[in-house]
Structure formats: structure tokens, C-alpha cells
Amino acid sequence: MKNVKLIKKYARLIAEFGLNASNKQDVVIEANVEHHDFVPYLVNELYNLHVKGIQVTYVDETVKKLSLLKAPIKKLEKVEKWEVEKFKEETENHMARIILVGSNPEMLKKVKPEAKRAYQKARKDAFYQYVDKYNSNELTWCKVAVPTRSWAKKVFPNDTPTQAYDKLWDCIFKACRIEEENFPIEEYEQHISILQRKATILTNMNIKTLHYTNSLGTDLEIGLPKKAIWKCAQSEEGYSGHLFTPNIPTEEVYTSPHRDRVNGIVYSSKPLAFEGDLIKNFYLKFKNGVVVDFNAEEGYEKLKAIIEFDSDSNRLGEVALVPFHSPISNLKTTFFLTLLDENAACHLALGDSFGDCIQNGENLEPIELINKGLNCSKMHCDFMIGTTDLKITATSYDSDDNREITIFENGDWAL
């Protein structure tokens, strides 16, 4: 790693600000084996904050690829009982979770679609009830990007593996506001206060519809539930009230749309790397909330698998606003990693919605959320739609004349 001083700052930012670690927590870290040189820095910072204990779970992406290439489908459809029991025990013990992401975005390109579908569906089904405890913020979690050489080479193909790796680290430092002389936690506190003000403004507007247009051809109207709540950055753990920041970096302000009130067409603005596949230059057409047509220049079968994953993965679950000019976007780099790319552009998500984006939603059962207009699915797939000329106008439930208010102009905030 190129700059140990900045690496240590990043590890501290994750532990202290992302997880908000304390002596009341046990922590599990999910990492790629290629992350092995960064993990000790993170473990050290967690112990400096006096966490009770740490478990590290490594995944070898190359071994996973070989299994998908060579194992019989029946084997891929089965998840070992010990894996499920391990995840169950971690959630029952209320362990905080750090997920390190960053691997070759086309790792599974040569794997047969049926093998990928069998493996990914089996694992989603087996782990969903436990993963959902983190995704719904019942338990503390934080997802962060850590470079690997295979990922870096995809981002910077004209550089040597070492040059690309160092470049990618530099990009992550800039995206996370980490510099030689600053204290990034102070930077983030100021940044999040700005996002929180934006979220409050949007919540108070009681937005009825959002209308998106740009030169790619996007012309999409999204309806929101009455009194939708806009969220950002920091979350509160449902189990203990503990504050944490689920994503580092983060630039978004988001809410959940009404599942039945999405109409029009939307075009992707960046490639989507999802579960070892790339999907490029795609569009989705909606009618009354449901995808009724779609296509992709590359990755059509993967896009189809996402849309058809379950009965409600063909509806939207998230609307997120991100200014086109942000530290990540200003790097003018496509990272082929949703965590970074979604924080460089406005985005939407197919599938599951966020219960806490409506009043008392975090306490409602799935059928109750659906009755209030939210979507429920085992899928949640973010995709980027923001451009430099994106315009978004809004109407409000509080206005009798459906007067439009411009909230985004030329890709940036107009509020």
C-alpha cells in the first residue's frame, strides 16, 4: 500500500465514524482475501476503540469462480447448514458488521447463467432474514471500498497492476475526503450536516411526484407515498439506538417511491457491476410501477435475471439524489463498483424499499408496507441515471395546482 498514513486514517474513519465502534460491540468483518493487507489496520483501530471482539471472514473470489464453473448445479443450489448457522448466530448476538467490497467486476463473466442464478438465489434465500436485519438498520453495519489489484486493473487498464492499485487508493482517499493534513471525521461531520439539511427540506416539501428528464432520453415520473421521509448518511440502529454511517463514502439523499406510481422510461448513465457481471447502456420502461420493457447493450441476461428475480424485483424500491459535481464524480472515473458509482450520480434501485422512509414503517410487516405503497423484495439493485444535464422537477401533496418546483438543474441541486 502506497501511503500508510492515509491508510490508517481510512481505517480510523471506518471504525470511529462508519461503525461508531464502542466497547459494547462485537464486530464481524467480511473481506476478500485480496484485502488481507488492509484488514490488520482496521482491526487495530477497532481494538483502539475497545470493541469486545472481532471475527474476520475471508472470501476467495477465484475459488468461488472455480466452484461456479465446475460444481454441479445441485451443489450450487445448496447452502451449507454451518454457513447459515454462523450468520444466524452473528445476528442473534447483535454483532456489528463491516463489509469490505472491491473485486474484479467481471469475475463471473464466463460462468454459465444457470450456474450463477442457482448459486445467487440459493444464498439470497438462505441468508435473507439475517441480511435484512442489517439492511433495515436493526443492526449496525458499514460497507466500504478497499482496492484489489484485479479491480484496479479494470478501472485503469493502461497502467501496470501496481500503478493501477496505487491510483485506486488515491481515488478512494479523495472520494472519502482524506488528505495528508486533515482529520476526515471532522470533514464528514460537516458534510453530513449538509445532507441532513437537504433531507429535511425534501421531507417538508411533502413531494407527490418527481419528473426526470435528460438528453439520454430519460423521461420518467415517480410518485411518492404521502409524507415520504427523506434520509441520508447516518442511521440509527433499531436494536440499541446506536448511530452509525452505513456507507463510506456517501453523497446521497434518498427515499422510497410508491410501488405503483412509476411511469415512463429511464436510461442508465454508468455501467452496472452486479454479482460478477457488467450491464452496460440499458433502459427500463415502467407502467404503473412495473417494468414492461427493457434492453441492454451488454449484460441483457443479467438485467433480465435481476428484474425477474422475484415477484416484486420489477418495481422500484429507492430514489436517491446525488449532485453530479461531488468529490467522487469530479474524479471522472467509472469504478465499476456500485458503492462508489452510485455516490457519483443520481440513482434508482429495483427491488426492496426502505421501511423507515414512511412514518412508523420500520415497525410494519411486509404486507403492511405494501398496503402503504412500498415495495418488498429479496432483491435490491442500485443503478445510476444521473447526468450533467439531468433535470428533476417535483410536485407537492400540499399544492392544489400541481405547481412544479425544480429541485435538480444541470445535474446539481437547485434547492
Descriptive report:
The chain has twelve helices and 21 strands. A hairpin with a 5-residue loop joins strand 5 and strand 6 (219-223). The strands form four sheets. Strands 5, 6, 12, 13, 14, 15, 19, 20 and 21 form a nine-stranded antiparallel beta sheet that branches. A five-stranded parallel beta sheet has the order 2-1-3-4-10. It has a five-stranded antiparallel beta sheet with strand order 7-11-16-17-18, covered by helices on one side. It folds into two domains: 4-175, Thermophilic metalloprotease-like (3-Layer(aba) Sandwich), CATH 3.40.1830; 184-413, no CATH class. It has 415 residues and is α+β, with helices and mostly antiparallel strands.
Record field, number of beta strands? 21
Q: How many domains?
A: 2
Q: Helical amount among residues, as a percent range?
A: 25-40%
Please state the overall shape, judged from the principal axes of the Cα atoms.
globular
Spans of at least 5 consecutive residues whose pLDDT stays below 50 are none
Q: How many angstroms separate the termini?
A: 41 Å
Strand share of the residues? Answer: 25-35%
Structural class: alpha+beta
Largest sheet: 9 strands, antiparallel
Discrete helix count: 12
Whole-number average pLDDT? 95
- Radius of gyration, Cα only, in angstroms? 21 Å
Topology (elements, then pairings):
Layout: H1 4-18, E1 26-32, H2 39-48, E2 53-59, H3 61-70, H4 73-76, H5 81-92, E3 96-101, H6 113-135, E4 141-145, H7 149-155, H8 161-175, H9 184-205, E5 207-213, E6 219-223, E7 231-232, E8 235-236, E9 243-244, E10 247-248, E11 253-255, E12 262-267, E13 272-274, E14 277-287, E15 290-298, H10 300-307, E16 316-321, H11 338-341, E17 347-351, H12 366-371, E18 380-384, E19 391-396, E20 405-409, E21 412-413
Parallel strand pairs: 1-2, 1-3, 3-4, 4-10
Antiparallel strand pairs: 5-6, 5-19, 6-12, 7-11, 8-9, 11-16, 12-14, 13-14, 14-15, 16-17, 17-18, 19-20, 20-21
Helix pairs in contact: 1-2, 5-6, 7-8
